[in-house]
Amino acid sequence: MTIGTDPILLEPDVFSAFAIGQGHCVGNVVYLSGQAAVNDAGEIVGEGDITAQIDQAMANIKRALQAAGSDIDRIFKITVYLTDMNNFEHIMAMRHRYFAEPWPADTTVGVQSLALPELMVELEVIATRS
User: Fold this and answer.
1) Using CA of residue 97, residue 104, residue 25, residue 2, what is the dihedral sign?
2) Mean pLDDT calculated for residue range 106-123
3) From its phi and psi, is residue 95 left (phi > 0), alpha (psi between -120 and 50) or beta?
4) Hey, is 58 helix, strand or coil?
5) Which of 48, 68, 90, 122 to pair with 5, CA 20 to 30 A apart?
6) Strands ordered across the beta sheet of 105-110
7) What is the pLDDT of residues 16-73, one digit of tens each?
């Protein structure tokens, strides 16, 4: 199906129940599906707590990137989907907590809702791997 790409496989993989892949590697570039505050058991983490949701999404990103032979410090593009733009200050705090100069390219989009009503943020990244 995906000639020339390597799928990222995780166990357990809560995405498989939704027919979504974790991501794919194309050469040395890693493309991840959007990650949200859902733990390995499929439970939402941090309902009503944007910082806890960001931290869980970043933990999911780290896990998927490591499975692909990469890590958070290899992220060069992040897209943030935020259900309440009043939480933008938390996105700024996330940037300083997880990244350093040179900063990754970034797009932040305000959305009406995400896949599950309790989710406040979804993060999608592109990174390199060695």
Assistant:
1) positive
2) 97
3) alpha
4) helix
5) 122
6) 6-7, 23-26, 29-32, 121-128, 75-82, 105-110
7) 888 899 999 999 999 999 999 999 999 999 999 999 999 999 999 999 999 999 999 9
